Amino acid sequence: MIDAHLFPKAVVLLEVARLRSFRAAGQHLGLSPSTVSEHVRSLEEAFGLRLLERTTRRVVLTDDGRTLLEFVERSLNDWQEGCEQLRQAQKEPRGVVRVTAPTYIGIEYVSAVIAEMTDRYARVRMELALEDTVSDLFDDRYDVAVRTGPLPADLPLHARRISRDREVIVAHPALADIWNRVDIEALIDAPWCMHERFLQRPSRLEDSRSHICDLKIPSYRAVASSSHGLLALAERRVGLALIPMGLCRGPLDSGRLARVHSEWSGRSFDIFALCVSKRHRPPRITHFLDLLQQRCPDPL
What we know:
By secondary structure, the chain is an alpha+beta fold. Helices cover 42% and strands 24% of the residues. The chain has helices spanning 7-19, 22-29, 33-47, 63-91, 103-120, 137-140, 173-179, 227-235, 245-254, 283-295, and strands at residues 52-54, 59-61, 95-101, 124-130, 144-148, 158-171, 193-195, 203-207, 212-215, 222-224, 241-244, 258-259, 264-275. Strands 3, 4, 5, 6, 8, 9, 11, 12 and 13 form a nine-stranded mixed beta sheet that branches. Strands 1-2 form a two-stranded antiparallel ribbon.
């Protein structure tokens, strides 16, 4: 069996045949004439065939040499075509971008960016997984994971901050009117809709003067597994809810929801796009990240 390491020697043979000179081939390839001669000799020994006829005046391919170089030229043409396709891939985004994001960020922000990506780049396909659990980029083979901070200090991923958001207290306008009349501490007695992830912790609120109020809500009226679920419950007058401003901006503007104690707000958090690597990133990923950052302004 002929080993693949002989192919570079066949490329040397091709240059010798093209230039009809060991010296000229060496100069073109950056090799000494003796090295060129050694490559050709080892190639002939590997095949047990004479590939060149050498005289003091010229170098001519034998029939076997011509047969071999026909295959070498075809292989080099395929190689050059493959190289050109990779160069074009660096210029024009193409391929699949697999993205995972929390439900509300995926619907409010990422879906719009995906629509713009597919409009701009005909050869890009997008896949979006909406989930409020933390996926493993390595195991699930996602290209980008959009996640809220804080992030672990030892996270083995490249993190790019794309936005910042803050939870605000909202309710149906009728409920908001009632609970805006009491002090902030009295909100522990209000009907609350809670996110299931935060049932066991106090709701820390902060006002514009950096005063802190920890609301230890003793009971709740309803629980939801996502911020969109909280939004739906709040719009239907079930209770008060802490919801990211980026999600409830529309319902607030339309009057379907109202702020409760608007000078107070809940936790603020950064939104990050996580990638496995920053080096040699395909253009489709780079363009998606750039567009994501441009289209995700801080809603605060």
